[in-house]
Amino acid sequence: TQLLEQSPQFLSIQEGENLTVYCNSSSVFSSLQWYRQEPGEGPVLLVTVVTGGEVKKLKRLTFQFGDARKDSSLHITAAQPGDTGLYLCAGEWGLGNMLTFGGGTRLMVKP
Amino acid sequence: NAGVMQNPRHLVRRRGQEARLRCSPMKGHSHVYWYRQLPEEGLKFMVYLQKENIIDESGMPKERFSAEFPKEGPSILRIQQVVRGDSAAYFCASSPPTVPVGYTFGSGTRLTVV
Fold first, then answer.
1. Nearest Cα to Cα of residue B109 among B41, B24, B28
2. Residue of B nearest to A51 (CA)
3. Which of B36, B45, B48 to mutate to test the interface with A (most CBs of A within 10 A)?
4. What is the pLDDT along chain B (114 residues), one digit of tens a residue?
5. Quick check: A45 and B41 CB within 8 A?
6. Buried-most residue among A3, A89, B31, B86 (CB within 10 A)?
7. Residue of A nearest to B47 (CA)
C-alpha cells in the first residue's frame, strides 16, 4: 500500500503571509498531483508534476516535485482569504492506476 | 467540477436499505474511479473501472458494496443493507486513458444513513 503523508494537517495564517505544505512518501510515484477542495464540493486539480526536480508555478502557488519523486511541496506566497480550503496531494503510479491521497492540509487565511 | 456528473447530491437511507450512486464521466473519459471521504479526512480509494470491466477493487469492502460501469449509461456504486458507518461523501472521478493529466472529480454524493 502506497502512503502519502501531508504536513501540516492544519494551518491558520493571516492574509499576506507565506506558507508551505509538504507531501512525503516512501514510494516513487510516476506522477504527483495537487488538488484543492472546498466544502461541499469535489477536489479540483491544481497541477500535475511528473519529472523529478520539476517546479511549476500557478500565479502565487509554486509546486515542486522532489528529485527522487517521493516528495513534493506547495508554496503559497502572500496568501489571501480566497486560498482557504483543503489542499490534497495525490500520487499515481503507472498509467491509469488509482490515486493515493494524502490526509490533506486544511488552510485558513484570515483577513 | 463541470463534466463529471454525480447524482443524487444528497441521499438519505434507513439502515438496511440499498443506496445507488450514479456517476457519468466526462466526455471522452473511459476510466472511472470511486472514492469515499469521511468528515475531516482525506479520500480513500474504493474501485477503478473501465467500460464493462473492474480493473482494481482493492479498496472496496468485500460485502455489501459493488460497482459497475456498463457499456451504456453511468457508473453505479451500489451499497446494500446500509449501516450508519456507510455515511460519508462518495466521489467519482474520471480520466482519459492517456498520459497522467489528472482526474476530474464530480461534486459527490453525500450519503446519510439514519
1. B24
2. B100
3. B45
4. 459 999 999 999 999 999 999 999 998 888 999 999 988 778 999 999 998 999 999 899 999 999 999 999 999 999 999 999 999 999 999 988 765 678 899 999 999 999
5. no
6. A89
7. A98
